[in-house]
Amino acid sequence: MIMSFRWFGQGDPVTLQNIRQIPGVSGIVTALYDVPVGEAWPMESILALKQTVEAAGLQISVIESVPVHEDIKLGRPTRDRYIENYSQTIRRLGEAGIPVICYNFMPVFDWTRSQLACQLPDGSNTLTFEDETISRMDPVNGDLSLPGWDSSYTKEEMGQLIEAYADVTEDKLWSNLAYFLERVIPVAEEAGLVMSIHPDDPPWPIFGLPRIVSNFDQLRRLTEHVDSPANGITFCSGSLGANEDNDLIAIIRHFGSQNKLHFAHTRNILRTGPRSFQESAHLSSTGSIDMVRVLEALYDTGFTGPLRPDHGRMIWGEQGRPGYGLYDRALGATYLNGIWEALSKTKPRS
């Protein structure tokens, strides 16, 4: 297992020097944040990013993410041009020695929360998702913004984009994902890297937009549609675990036994009601997910890929990107490393 940490580039208040001081962390999960969505990533920028990370004594373990242009998700006539640009980025990342690309196929919005700084009884604050609050939100005229969202749209463009999805059913969105996979997975194979799709977060439709990567059956459909070692999954315990109907251990054991788990986000959440949850500390006792069982299932299926803590609380007065402060994620990395060390010493692999 490669313990890794998300870094948002030179503008991130969490520096590479900070990350290097976290015991056991050797991998960096990052991306290019100044390339417009849909454009091919310049090779010189990829190499400069890699050099920056390696100069700090770390390695890029995952690119998260290379965003998928909305025209691809919508199945517009322009999608082939954007798929070719995406393929060119895959080739360049492979040439640079990047092993994993994490991406998602969520329409319009990446991960979504209703509150970014909900104060907890201990004085820390955290991200929350309350279904009733989300149902009253206006995604066009609201001011909610999260790390990872494409902020390049004007309100008018955002409204037009959401309207464009009015006639996109789950079946249509799936057809567009299948079209994308059929074209990019062979490129990834040739480039010597793997594609690792992130589940929908949260794992149900929001703002009237369809979502199709939310449960076991949907994950199996996409991995079987293009059956390739390069077509895999980012297992995210928090995203999938927000729906208590998702059996996290069964998902890990099924796809792990097929070597389809290329990357893991291991975070805890506390389910607070129907389609509602808050981000908790990583510790099992603070949330709804048994993190020991999750890591044990990954360990038992032979997982050796990058794994990172995710969406930490803001603690000890820290200010920064919602969900991406240093302190709580560092505690999470240490906790997860401790579980993994205990597993490796009590259940040695043959």
Protein architecture, described:
The protein is an alpha/beta fold and 350 residues long. It has one domain: Divalent-metal-dependent TIM barrel enzymes (TIM Barrel), CATH 3.20.20.150. Helix content is 38%, strand content 16%. It has twelve helices and twelve strands. It has helices spanning 16-20, 43-55, 70-74, 79-95, 131-136, 155-164, 170-191, 216-225, 237-241, 248-257, 291-300, 327-346, and strands at residues 2-6, 27-30, 59-64, 100-103, 115-119, 125-129, 194-197, 231-236, 261-265, 269-273, 276-279, 306-308. An eight-stranded parallel β-barrel has the order 1-2-3-4-7-8-9-12, surrounded by five helices. A four-stranded antiparallel β-sheet has the order 5-6-11-10. Helix 8 (216-225) links the parallel strand 7 and strand 8. It is globular and about 55 Å long. It starts with a strand and ends with a helix. 41% of the residues are buried. Keywords: Iron, Lyase, Manganese. It catalyses: D-mannonate = 2-dehydro-3-deoxy-D-gluconate + H2O. Its EC number is 4.2.1.8.
Brief rundown of the structure:
The protein is an alpha/beta fold. Helix content is 38%, strand content 16%. The protein has an eight-stranded parallel barrel with strand order 1-2-3-4-7-8-9-12, surrounded by five helices. A four-stranded antiparallel sheet has the order 5-6-11-10.
